[in-house]
Design brief:
Layout (H helix, E strand, L loop, with lengths): L7 E4 L1 H9 L7 H14 L5 E4 L2 E5 L11 E7 L3 E9 L1
Parallel strand pairs: 1-5
Antiparallel strand pairs: 2-3, 3-4, 4-5
Length: 89
């Protein structure tokens, strides 16, 4: 049997605001952000430890129109991931 554990992912108000503000420029930003949250829920240590307890991860760049790259600053424990900041490029 495979041992599976997904964490709860939450974002700060500033992250929500940044995602909402970027929708005009990047119509697919919510799709990219949902994928990022999915990945963090399953393996948050896949990012790079920036300064304990903060980690950084970025999505793959895309050449498709409306698909941004997201760089996220987050922290996590055994049950939760908190996304504290994002840069959308």
């Amino acid at each position: 049997m495979i041992n599976f554990h997904a964490r709860v992912v939450a974002e700060s108000n500033s992250v929500t605001t940044a995602i909402n503000r970027s929708k005009k420029k990047y119509p697919r930003v919510e799709d990219v952000f949902s994928g990022l949250k999915w990945a963090l829920a399953r393996d948050p240590a896949n990012g790079i430890l920036a300064s304990n307890p903060y980690w950084v991860i970025k999505t793959a760049p895309s050449v498709a129109a409306g698909v941004p790259q997201i760089i996220a600053l987050y922290r996590f424990d055994n049950d939760n991931v908190e996304i504290d900041a994002v840069k959308i490029i």
